[in-house]
Amino acid sequence: MAVARRSAAGGAGASRGFGWAGLAAALLLAVHAGLAISSLAVKSVTNDELAHLPAGLAAVATGELRLNPEHPPLVKLLSGLAASTLHPALPLDSSAYREANEWRFGREVLFESGNDPRALLFRGRLPIVALSVLGGLGVFLWSRRRFGPGGGLLSLTLYAFSPTVLAHGRLVTMDAAVAAGSVWTLYLAWRVTASRSRAWSSRRLLAAQAACGLALGLTLAAKFSGLILLPALALADLGALGVAGRAVWRDRLVRWSVALSLAALVVEALYLGSGGLGRYVHDLGHLYGENDPDALYYLAGRFRHGSFPEYFAVALAVKTSLAGLAAMAGGLALAGRAVVRRSPRWRDDLFLWVPAALWLAVHSAFALDLGVRYVLPLYPLLFLLAGGLVPALGVAFGERSARSGSLGRQLALLLPAALGLAQLSTAVAAHPDYLPFFNRLAGGERGGVAWLDDSNLDWGQDLARLAPWLAARGVGPVRLLYYGAGVPRAYGVEREPMLRSDWLRAPRPGDYVISAEYLLHGLHQADTEGVASDWLRRYQPSAVLGGTLYLYRFPATP
User: Fold this and answer.
1) How far apart are CA 475 and CA 553, in angstroms?
2) What pTM does this model have?
3) Which of 363, 452, 455, 526 is packed most tightly, with the most Cβ within 10 A?
């Protein structure tokens, strides 16, 4: 059985409106890039970037992948290539490099070798922004093809101005890359599957198969979680085509053989001759290898040595903007109705909600509770489903309008436009602090400590802004309890010694800056050890920088 053709609202509108919609999409992507670049420029190194960027620099300089085996090489190579244009000094003869100590080597590169950490990070982060833009382009093209120009622009607006997408679409981590790669892999797989109803030429079909294989290979080389795409693609393809005859099964076998072979070649090439697929499988065993098995995880006021099954569902609920949540709910409702009614679009939807559901299920069952970024690929897929609101509302209002179909179309634009404007205003208001974003129902930026920690909130990203922020408030040297990979002196932060008793018993008179991560885990320390580290309950901060650095001022007693 063939996959359903694109809807009448989507197909006709797509061809007529490509010009203006394409220009609008280019503008949206440019604003997305502008917000990402302007915000990354003021952010200090985050925890994982300390390992990823120097590892990429070393790989580009030496041609060997010695560092950071727990992640595939694509992102590190791209960022390393970009940052290497600054010709940084690399301590390749140090014991850290010889022993493959990626964290110590990262500190040496960024803070101990005379390099400018701000410049290296800025240059190394730019390829991630490009990948995020590429993901947005895939969202627009896929949604436009299915739901017309209005649907395409709604999906792209939701993606481009999602605070969570912006947060991770500018850091040297693997999450934006695997999200963008997933969109393109699934989109191209859908095109190939849908081609059965369009009588494509064999040459065009082969090109689409090859493109899907290349996208899959790049996704697998971005992050090991890209392997989830393999069962997701199989399930979506099986559901779309159903149980068919021998000819269809033979076609499937040929199609996937081409795609998987090209994907394997891409992975082989990106490992720079250091083992290829064998190295990929070997390094997969390093996944979570450096994580502490006794680590303490946090969710909604509770601490636990072990994962919370509901962690990622809760993280999605509190870290997604209200406009984004409403759009996701609407898109999923339309997909559910299509399944119930067996309408033509339900087979096309399989390439969106099946991978999203599988991604969430696998991470909820097996991933460490370290951040909503692990399920970042859900965002573009669910925003794509939300694009269906435009034609659906157009049909609904057109049928119910007593005057004319044009009135129905005008009314149909109001809700999607309101969602898009709300998403845009949320992104502008949150700038440049996208990492600690929480929606209003969760309490906003200052309410984040009630819900999540780590890369959801405080990854050490605001150290670069601390010195001028303190100077603007007339605050001199502070006692600093900083959580993160940055080095305070490298960012001009003047400090005074902070005693253990200041934190655990009673602070001496003076000014203190405490990271949100320490404040959160100080609550657990106070409850289990009977110390006075529960500053969040005891004291009111004088000010908060970026939702992560809390300033406390204790005057001398008269």
Assistant:
1) 9
2) 0.93
3) 452
